[in-house]
């Protein structure tokens, strides 16, 4: 027990490191936010483009979403960081990570939005068009609100999953929370920093995980 | 174009590093072969145990599932591999990776199986119990099989996610497919091994990603 406290909860050792840890935490938050802000709208855009049913374009979109759902995030980050420079494209570690994660999220988001669009009854389209709304207006005012509502639970789950992937940036030396805490761990030869890191990740993601439980409940028993 | 091919898909390079990549591929499969069954079985056990009418037990199970879903798997892995040795618990790379993947994977499987179990009408359970089956037998022979069928797409896609995640083991220098490719790239100053690894991952997961899309579309169609 003593050992556990000494090695994993000796917070006095952390005193000089709090600013670094805070900076790492903020970078994690920033990367997660950017990933979501790029990934989800891009996914929605792809799903909308797919509605126009232009064959070659749809094949491309389907290949895009299949490809980026089939390749591990870490592999994409490593590719973006280590392979693109041979192409003459040198990305900052943080850019490579956010780019890779946002693309993966957009692929999953497209699939979720597309499933939602297919789940809206055809009558909704017909009713919208028959009142004189254009295709675009029917989409924007009638269809999308329903799609977005249906998509919230699976999108939240996926967004949490992919935001956790920001830790993979530590592999290409992004100074995010995991990277910072694990280098403190090796500097002071005490894993308390890892405990701090784990607790901060909990602080960041646990509310969202709890939120998904609440969503599941709210969607299972809709207020009529 | 010729330049592009010699840089990105250089056959000479590929033939040199192929044995290394193949070795990594087998290690990835080995990790998956241990981590997937462990995660599935733990997940079923947790989901079944949530059926037991004990508030305390449920509280701990839900806490476990939520915490494990909130902590990034790479954080778990680093904690297990670099933190636990301070307590005298030194796990090798493979065991540490299996443990981290299972802790993370089982929590997701637990949620999926719970949804599956809840989707089975109560009458099934009552009928099973009334024929004299014990709680345990009615779960194993009646409820879980039906529940599993209802959540099959989620089970497949979560398995894909878990196997994709084996790539994080490269962060503790376990020589799986990604790590092998990185080593080869470092040796030969050529990104071909990374590209080849990405293609291998893609070929490995693509059929399953497609299958899940088709299964989900079919459910969406039958629901409409």
Question: Summed up, what is this model?
Answer:
The complex is a heterodimer of chains A (224) and B (224). Chain A contains nine helices and no strands.
Relative strand content of chain A: under 5%
Shape of chain B: globular
Mean pLDDT across every amino acid position of chain B: 92
> What proportion strand of chain B?
under 5%
Order of helices and strands of chain A: HHHHHHHHH
Based on CA atoms alone, the radius of gyration of chain B comes out at 21 Å
What do these coordinates show?
- The complex is a heterodimer of chains A (224) and B (224).
- In chain A, helix 4 (73-83) crosses helix 5 (93-119), helix 5 (93-119) packs across helix 7 and helix 6 runs antiparallel to helix 7.
- Chain A has helices at residues 2-8, 18-51, 55-70, 73-83, 93-119, 122-130, 135-164, 177-188, 192-220.
- The radius of gyration of chain A is 22 Å and the shape is elongated.
- Chain A is mainly alpha-helical and 224 residues long.
- Chain B is mostly helical.
- In chain B, 82% of the residues lie in helices and 0% in strands.
- Chain B has helices at residues 2-8, 11-49, 55-70, 73-83, 93-119, 122-130, 135-150, 152-165, 177-188, 192-223.
- In chain B, helix 5 (93-119) packs antiparallel against helix 8 (152-165).
- The chains are: A mainly alpha (224), B mainly alpha (224).
- Chains A and B meet through helix 1, helix 3, helix 4, helix 5 and helix 7 of A and helix 3, helix 4, helix 8, helix 9 and helix 10 of B.
Characteristic terms for this protein:
heterodimer; A: 224 residues; mainly alpha; 78% helix; elongated; B: 224 residues; 82% helix; 0% strand
Provide the fold topology.
The complex is a heterodimer of chains A (224) and B (224).
Chain A (H helix, E strand, L loop, with lengths): L1 H7 L9 H34 L3 H16 L2 H11 L9 H27 L2 H9 L4 H30 L12 H12 L3 H29 L4
Chain B lengths: L1 H7 L2 H39 L5 H16 L2 H11 L9 H27 L2 H9 L4 H16 L1 H14 L11 H12 L3 H32 L1
Helix pairs in contact in B: 2-5, 2-9, 2-10, 3-5, 4-5, 5-7, 5-8, 6-7, 8-10, 9-10
